[in-house]
Amino acid sequence: MQYFNFDPYSLPPEAEELRKEVRAFLKEELADYPAVLRSRSWSGKSAEFSRKVGARGWIGMTWPKKYGGAERSFFERYAFLEEVLAYGAPVGGHWIADRQSGPTVMRFGTEEQCHRVLPGIIKGESFFCIGMSEPDSGSDLASIRTKAVKTDGGYVINGSKIWTTGAESCDWMIALVRTGNNPENRHQGMSQFLIDLKNSKGLTISPIKNMAGEEHFNMVVFEDVFVPDENLIGAEGDGWKQVTAELAFERAGPERYMSSIQLLIEIIREAKLQPDTRAQEQIGRLVAHLATMRRMSISVAGKLETDSNPALEASVVKDLGAVYEQDIPEIAHRIGRGEASMTALSDFEQVRAYLTQAVVSFSLRGGTREILRGIIARGLGLR
Question: What pTM value is reported for the model?
Fold first, then answer.
């Protein structure tokens, strides 16, 4: 039987120095940023803010200098992410490109692809979305049906993707599609493509409104969309191997337990107004869980820094993190006063109202709880 391996790591001095710099930057740039907007966490976005972050060299900071990166450590990147998440900065525009799209292109793409797309990401000027889930598929990526058929000079794609966050404002999608068919092995015959969302004919992007009234989810329909050969990422048929590697980048960062952090901050402020033992116990438990999640997540950053495979541990962090994030609004309702309303006067009530609606999807994004626990069981040799 295998075991989890969360080796202890501490952030080095250079990471803590960067933290001070980032904190001062956020204080200046977002001095009057409302609490209810901070509660959007990494789903909030501002193209202007992304460009300012890029100008500081804080996007793609671990990437090679030949593409415009800074070749800083994963620990420094971790300290930066903690600060922007704790502040609720509007980083959603560049978040996916920085976290997984860029690393996927670097790992599996060509030099031409890297030089074509990475500099724009680093500058905070080029945004990416994820083309994985499909109607009737959800987190079961092996059941995708969107198909790419080879033609002269490229491929023609037909099908659809759903729950595509940010597609309405993104420049590129990395899409997982079928380029072959093997009924005996659903994981074969898939490939990844760079899809130019701004200039491809036959694409239709339709918004999907969530419970909080936002429209950052989308359905993307492909109708005879031509994609040139040079936009194939990696080798044809290697899509499953590539997408599982991509998901490892997605599942273990601090965003997987800090998406509801603004509500924890407001709970503490609310409890100060009328302290009681029950609130103290609940807050103490939340803070203890937060500290534990942080140690586990930093351990995964350590694995990335030493070029180890963090897939199993990343799945554990993501699963536990979603449970933690969804617990916070429940506790806020038990110990808080007033009405949870987006039109309420207090920051606590507004933030509680927003996150009560938003956290429903937190156990779905990046893989459902059932899928993650299957991965964990397989990694432990239990299935």
Answer: 0.89
